[in-house]
Design goal:
Elements lengths: L3 E5 L23 H12 L3 E6 L4 H12 L4 E6 L21 H6 L9 E5 L2 E2 L2 H13 L5 E8 L10 E8 L5 E13 L2 E6 L2 E5 L4 E9 L2 H17 L9 H11 L3 E7 L4 E2 L6 H13 L10
Parallel strand pairs: 1-2, 1-4, 2-3, 6-12
Antiparallel strand pairs: 4-11, 5-13, 6-11, 7-8, 7-11, 8-9, 9-10
Helix pairs in contact: 1-4
């Protein structure tokens, strides 16, 4: 059974100022999602599922269906505010849904095969998809999941500090814990993170999570009970979010599942602000000029 690619694309992109999920970055207006899907098809994925808000559906279908028809099966998952499906009969006012792990739960009735989760606005590189596809077809189980671990120096910006999920990995390549470091940056040829005004050096090959996870459908049931408890504990915190690393941490600490950290030397790049666009366009242009991707991706 071929694995599925689940793309988190329901965000409102408030810092970007428009729907960056469908903005053009390639030489023929290709989105970042296009490059992820192209790599996923090449790596052997059999279906792509877009997690979106229902009001985005027509726009997404108009953009992606003509390109992908006959290349890969497509599916759409809608993330909503409705909590009754989880047995929670309360109205909780929020400006946006409950985060990335809540978005994944929205797919629980539509995915029946091993799958990986990625962000819509991140460029991951073919090596990551190839390694994840191999893991999902040979090694994944209901108690053995994975994430792609990027070298921290391949994910940083030359223009300031970033937040990164720094992974602590044991001798068997399994994640022990993941710590969110909110100020990570280059300094004097190395990498440091700052906390409380104190700078701590990090090795250049430290592994970080860029939200590229591999699961079986068992994770839906495993995380649903966590989500219900999370809502109960945070119903009066409208900005609280149920993130995938919270699920991973809970599964690891409870002994329910381990997470293999799959190393990649691929360079990651992504877009958060409008100012990032020309940088991303230049990165993609360089990959096209070097022959990694064709100039017209879907020709």
């Amino acid at each position: 059974m071929k694995p599925t690619l689940l793309i988190l694309a329901a965000g409102m992109a408030s810092r970007y100022g428009s729907m960056k999920q469908v903005d053009g970055f390639g030489p023929n207006g290709e989105t970042i999602i296009d490059y992820s899907i192209y790599d996923a098809i090449k790596a052997g994925f059999g279906k792509v599922s877009f997690i979106i808000r229902e009001e985005f559906a027509d726009n997404f279908k108009a953009i992606f269906e003509p390109k992908l028809k006959g290349r890969i099966e497509t599916d759409y998952v809608y993330q909503s505010y409705d909590l009754t499906q989880f047995g929670i009969h309360k109205t909780i006012e929020r400006a946006k849904p409950w985060g990335t792990a809540h978005a994944v739960l929205a797919a629980r009735n539509q995915i029946n095969e091993p799958f990986c989760v990625i962000n819509a606005d991140d460029f991951y590189g073919y090596d990551s998809f190839e390694k994840m596809a191999k893991f999902l077809t040979t090694d994944v189980s209901d108690d053995t999941y994975s994430l792609v671990g990027y070298q921290i120096d391949k994910t940083l910006s030359e223009y300031g500090s970033v937040s990164r999920g720094v992974c602590k990995v044991d001798e068997n390549g399994n994640m022990i814990e993941i710590n969110e470091r909110t100020q990570v940056y280059f300094k004097d040829g190395g990498v440091v993170y700052e906390e409380g005004g104190i700078e701590t050096p990090l090795s250049l090959d430290t592994r970080v999570s860029m939200n590229f996870w591999g699961f079986t459908p068992a994770v839906f049931k495993q995380s649903e009970s966590m989500f219900i408890k999370f809502v109960e504990a945070n119903e009066d915190k409208p900005k609280s979010e149920f993130f995938i690393p919270l699920v991973a941490d809970g599964l690891i600490k409870s002994g329910i599942a381990s997470f293999k950290v799959i190393p990649t030397a691929s360079k990651w790049f992504g877009v958060t602000y409008k100012e990032d666009k020309p940088i991303v366009q230049k990165c993609i242009s360089d990959l096209v000029n070097s022959g990694v991707y064709p100039e017209n991706l879907w020709a």
